[in-house]
Amino acid sequence: MPRWKPDAAERLQAAALELFDEQGFESTTVAEIAQRAGLTQRTFFNHFTDKREVLFILSSEIQRAVVGEIAACDDAVPPLDAVVRALEVVADGLFEERRAVATRRHAVIAANPELQERELGKNAALTDAIAAELHARGCDPDTAFLAAGTAVLAQQAAFQRWTRPGETRTLRHLLSEAVRSLGTIVSEDPVTS
Amino acid sequence: MPRWKPDAAERLQAAALELFDEQGFESTTVAEIAQRAGLTQRTFFNHFTDKREVLFILSSEIQRAVVGEIAACDDAVPPLDAVVRALEVVADGLFEERRAVATRRHAVIAANPELQERELGKNAALTDAIAAELHARGCDPDTAFLAAGTAVLAQQAAFQRWTRPGETRTLRHLLSEAVRSLGTIVSEDPVTS
Q: Rounded to two decimals, what is the model's pTM?
């Protein structure tokens, strides 16, 4: 018995990844994606508002999980630390077992400006949601924005490494490393040190 | 004699800002923008590829100036410091005298998802260009990406404050303040401190 059965959204994403890789994002239609997944166009549009969204099936789950972890974190924990801890939990729980798919997805997005634009929007929405949660914990809005932005930047850097060919370290490990690099970069600046 | 005569691009941007503010981005046509500016649609498309670009007339000039300043900076200057110095020069030279227009522009962009998306794309392009220049100076790619991203994040935070009603401090001042806040945020993190 299979341990895990992909649901419609994951099947559609897998089909889209194959097709975008074979024939490009532009030349692939929603009808082709649905057909390759053995589903109907109607099912596609029940799950996604447009062709780009099919590669962002985890975005809202990630955002909910990160915000939930920050909310559950002890108030005494400083803002950046609270966000990094949340991203670490999400790295283990949502990303680590999906490395192969994430790597293919990353390559397809990198090759297409429209998909990159959507990804930038998702990162900005995640940053805003994190900043709002930090603000709810009592952070002033400017600090909340900077702490959220710094954490998402570290996450992006870690994600880039994690999906690089030959890289075997976990996303959690690479995230800590990116945060440490940020510490070095910022402490070398005469204004901050 | 007027000290400064707006060129076609600036006239088109001023007209677009008025119209987007009066009737919204969606319901404004390129023909209306050109007419309001006393110019032709053809002139509009000589300057801009689409309706969104009219609000980004300085983007390529900013990018060129920032990259040029980094390239001219002494190699011994650490990466984040080199970028912040460049952003300070550009803040004084390109932004400070345009505060009123920048504030109206910022409000119009904030009210429109399509314009926000384009702005995210411009910030990402600026980050990539800065990272490429840091890499050319001998920075490893991961450090270059993180230093560029950190500086652009500080610039965004400073810009948000600078365009806030009642704020009178210069963009240069607010940029230094944002970089200092980043230093505090990062040094509070147990991984980096």
A: 0.91
